[in-house]
Amino acid sequence: MYKTELHAHTCPASKCAHTEPEEMIEQYIENGYSAVVITNHMSPTLFDVILPDITDYREAAEIFLEDIRRARVYAAGRITVLTGMELRVRKNMNDYLIYGIDDEFILNMGNVMDMTIKELSPFFHENGALIFQSHPFRDTMTVTSPKLLDGIEAGNFCTTHDSRNDIAAVWAKKFGMLTVYGSDYHSKAYMRGAGILTEQPITCNAELLNVLKTKSFKVTDGENVFLPY
Questions:
Q1: Which residues contact 184 (CB under 8 A, 6 or more apart)?
Q2: How many whole angstroms separate alpha carbon 61 and alpha carbon 107?
């Protein structure tokens, strides 16, 4: 089967990450992945702390995309690199994984961090993207109404946080929500081989969205293989 990472961060785009794109790609290739979605933080931290002197959104977006572009060039076709993001708005500490977007979309979407989730949900759906709440039962998170989401991250295999995946699984089952799973990679120490497994390789956004919508995948935490919740 083919393994895909759905939650990964690189530096310098994500302040909390410790691995640059080229090193990260090498690690994913060595660990048998066929695809990785880079979901760096699109957050107030990026604009207010890392890029405090940049007021033009498009200029900031170019910097955000640089890590993804570097990863794609370095990969040179050996592994598929897809564009994603982990979005945080200013209203609270919630994070949302966005799939089915490309570089051009990020460049042109404008600064959406001042929007509410009620505004973001139709915005992304109208542009063909899916929105999942990241680790919704982790400390400081506020659970979002299922009506505003395509699903939740029911399996976050980060080793430095308690994401309470068991509670997320129950929540997903209760509301019949789609689920995603990922390593929440920040450095080599987070590499444990987690992700989703598919019969065919995921090579583009259309294939990724179809796999997620149809739940046509299995899940691995790096050791065990199981069906999605």
A1: 7, 8, 9, 134, 135, 156, 157, 158, 161, 163, 190
A2: 6
pTM as predicted: 0.94
Count other C-beta atoms under 10 Å from residue 5's C-beta.
27
What Å distances lie between residue 131 and 98, 113, 196, CA to CA?
Answer: 5, 14, 17
**Pairing state between β 178-182 and 151-156:** parallel
Three-class secondary structure of residue 159 per DSSP: coil
| CATH class assigned to 2-226 | alpha beta
Q: Structural domain boundaries of the chain?
A: 2-226
3-state secondary structure of 37: strand
User: Which tens digit of pLDDT belongs to each residue from 99-134?
Assistant: 999 999 999 998 898 899 999 999 999 999 999 999
Q: Exposed, middle or buried, 142 (CB in 10 Å: 0-12/13-18/19+)?
A: exposed
187 vs 65, higher pLDDT = 65
| Strands 80-83, 33-38: pairing kind | parallel
Amino acid at 31: N
Q: Quick check: 7 and 36 in contact, CB under 8 A?
A: no
Identify the pLDDT of residue 156: 93
Using CA atoms of 129, 14, 189, 30 in order, give the dihedral in degrees to the nearest 10.
Answer: 60
| Contacting residues for 202 by C-beta, under 8 A, at least 6 apart | 2, 4, 34, 35, 80, 82, 208, 211
pLDDT of 31-64, one tens digit each? 999 999 999 999 877 666 655 666 678 888 998 9
The secondary element (H helix, E strand) that includes residue 155 is: strand 151-156
